[in-house]
UniProtKB/TrEMBL annotation:
This is Tautomerase. Gene3D superfamilies: Macrophage Migration Inhibitory Factor. It comes from the Bacteria. It holds the Pfam family Tautomerase_2. The lineage of its organism: Bacteria, Pseudomonadati, Pseudomonadota, Gammaproteobacteria, Vibrionales. PANTHER family: TAUTOMERASE YOLI-RELATED (PTHR38460).
Length: 128
C-alpha cells in the first residue's frame, strides 16, 4: 500500500497521473502487476502540512508499505526511479519529493483472509 500526502490544491489535480507514474515505477523496479495498485491519497490543507524550508507547494510525501525481503539495491532503484519519473512526467523536482519505504514481516500483512506469510499465489516476488 502506498500513501501519498500533499497540499490539496496541488495534489488533487495530479492524483491520477501521479498514481500512474508510481505504479509504473513499482512495476519496473519490483515487477509488481498493474492490478496490485493500492494507492491512498491524503490531500491536506496548507496549514496542516508542515514541511522543510526550501520546498514549494509541490512538496509531496510518498510512503511505501511493503513486505520485507527485497534487496537494498532493489529498494534504492525504486526510490531513484520514482524521483526520475515523477520529475520527467509531472515536473516535480526531487527536492519536493520525500519517499519512505516501510517494511513489515509478511506475517504482519493481512489480505484475502490470510496473512502474507501464508500466501502462496502472489504474482510477484518479495525476495528479490
Amino acid at each position: 500500500m502506498i500513501v501519498i500526502y500533499g497540499i490539496k490544491e496541488y495534489l488533487n489535480p495530479i492524483k491520477a497521473r501521479l498514481s500512474d507514474v508510481i505504479q509504473c515505477a513499482m512495476s519496473k523496479s519490483l515487477s509488481l502487476p498493474d492490478d496490485k495498485r493500492a494507492h491512498r491519497f491524503i490531500p491536506m490543507n496548507h496549514d496542516d502540512f508542515f514541511f522543510p524550508g526550501g520546498r514549494t507547494a509541490a512538496y509531496t510525501v510518498i510512503e511505501i508499505n511493503m513486505m520485507e525481503g527485497r534487496q537494498i539495491d532493489t529498494k534504492k532503484n525504486l526510490i531513484k526511479t520514482l524521483f526520475k519519473d515523477i520529475e520527467a512526467e509531472l515536473g516535480i523536482s526531487p527536492i519536493d519529493i520525500e519517499i519512505t519505504i516501510k517494511e513489515q514481516p509478511a506475517h504482519c500483512w493481512g489480505f484475502r483472509g490470510m496473512t502474507g506469510d501464508e500466501a502462496r499465489d502472489l504474482q510477484y516476488k518479495v525476495k528479490m
